[in-house]
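An example makes the point: we let one protein speak, the chain in one-letter code, the fold tokenised, and here it is:
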Amino acid sequence: MSTTTGTTGSHDDVVTVEVSDWVATIRLNRPDRRNALSSAVIEALPRLASTAARRDDVRVLIVTGADPAFCAGLDLMELGSSGDNLGLPVDAPFPWPWDAAGKPVIGAINGAAVTGGFELAVCCDILIASDRARFADTHARIGQVPGAGLTVNLPRLIGQARAREMSFTGNFISADTALEWGIVSRVVPHAELLPAARALAADIVGNDPETVVAVNQMYRAAEALPYPEALALEAAMARDWQAVHNDPAVVAERREKVLARAHGQLARLTGDGPQG
């Protein structure tokens, strides 16, 4: 395993990155402050994520927090003193902070994801949650407004009514409610969260990496368009892709791998094959 750790000029490593088996695991590492977004974190996170995403040995990113929280949002102590953590860097990528070169980002939500931490979570491509996860948008409670995509991304996940309810009330929802509403794709026991995230990442890694990036870029592009324009864009991108990537020999080779993988998964689902 190769490991890269990002530092931010202090004695503490507030964001760490570990790379293994084609997956970069990015961890917010301020457990004593519930991984709150200090100016150091806000600077380090997009920089380290972008660097990790551009490594040849990285195909998927996982983001999580050091227990007990995922991210408590802005560090209110810093906000109430210097205020240096208010606002994103002028060159920050959008969706913040994932300048991920089209590579999928899995959010492994291990605890509370609140306000800016919730905003960070919903910028991921896929979210899975520990049964300890909790979600809330408390911007209105602290007298701030979202600035990193929450009012855009959240209603696309759960609809305008539920998104506005969360933002206007500041109330928390449980992991199970987040699953019911479509914020997360699954909920697992806390101890199984990272293994589940890594297993999901391994399933993604097992596919053609260039195609995964292209499909993710199609999803991202379609999100920004009305339905008819999104359909037209997908068709145009598909034509461009097929013009370059339609080698019959390569397609035949991949077909055999797809069939073998499908047969194995179906056998496990039906109980006719080895489990695990």
Remarks:
- The longest strand covers residues 15-20.
- The CA atoms of residues 179 and 185 lie 6 Å apart.
- Confidence is low (pLDDT under 50) at residues 1-12.
- DSSP finds eleven helices and ten strands in the chain.
